[in-house]
Amino acid sequence: MTQLDHDIGRAIADVTRNGRHLSTVIDELFTAYRPDADTAADIRSRIVEAVRTMPEWLRQRIRAAYGDKATRILEALRSEAPVFIRVNTLKTTDRDALRALRDAGAEPTELEHCLVVARPFGLYRRQSFRDGWFEQQDISSQRVALSMDLAPGMRVVDACAGNGGKTLHMAALMGNRGRIIALDPYAEKLSTLRSRAARAGVSIVEPRAITSTKTVKRLAETADRVLVDVPCSGTGVLRRNPDIPWHLTDASIGELVSLQRDILRRSANCAKPGGLVVYASCSILPEEGPDQIRTFLDQSPFTLESEWASMPDNAPHSGDGFYCAVLRRNP
């Protein structure tokens, strides 16, 4: 065994036993060894493949939820995710975006609402990206904003805006007309959102830090649409972030479910009577999806209008695992 082999094993243990982040341990190895491109690819592949072997407690949860389908789901979660691109229609057209991607050698394929490009592709190094023409966003994630029945001039509350991926998509669907209140407790995420909005040519977003429960209470019954994209286990996006399960425990899933329930309850009150609340979770666990919504509907004056779920599989254009429910507040 070489020293590199030993250090790769230690890096794997740092993720699976000590909870360190995958990107961090890989960067440390690259810094220490300064490998050529082929060696770097081999190092990354060996570590990622080992980390994809998720903890047994999570495997058991998935088997309990999906029975005979679990084996196929677990296999799909170990695969590479496609690269999906959302065209920013505030800055360009689909035709010009396709031409720019082809000129860059990206080999784009047109799907119903987005593009998928072949790997590898340095999107973030392209001038067209810096000019705000594109966002890298999974096809299932894009489907969330498309489920909101948005129109120009609406007032929208994004209750868990984060870095703003869905916020910017909503702004584009609204033609940059109306207002989006983007809430998040983390100032650094809202700072990133501001930068991304400027690049995307979005001016209708108002980032607002959640400093207390009053931040949300002041928005009671003011919004035509409310997006509640809750913090979750991330089990639907393991293809992109295979180290996620190593930062979770079986007990922490219950803690997340309680947090989601509280966020949904508080945020849903921002909707006007007759307005829509869209709940989204990038989890494949039922307790973070349909079970959460059934509990909410039993206790709240809302009606379920529609719901959908996506599951990663080995199809060429398979999106991430998501659950989404569209709820209407009773008049």
Describe the protein.
- With 331 residues, this protein is α/β, with parallel strands linked by helices.
- 42% of the residues lie in helices and 19% in strands.
- It has helices at residues 3-16, 22-33, 37-51, 56-66, 70-76, 94-103, 127-130, 139-146, 165-173, 187-200, 213-217, 250-268, 290-299, and strands at residues 83-87, 109-110, 115-117, 134-136, 155-158, 179-184, 205-209, 223-229, 271-281, 302-310, 322-329.
- A 7-stranded mixed beta sheet has the order 7-6-5-8-9-11-10, sandwiched between helices. A 4-stranded antiparallel beta sheet has the order 2-3-1-4.
- A hairpin with a 4-residue loop joins strand 2 (109-110) and strand 3.
- Helix 1 (3-16) runs parallel beside helix 3 and helix 4 (56-66) packs across helix 5 (70-76).
- The longest helix is centred in the last third of the chain and has 19 residues, at 250-268.
- The radius of gyration is 21 Å and the shape is globular.
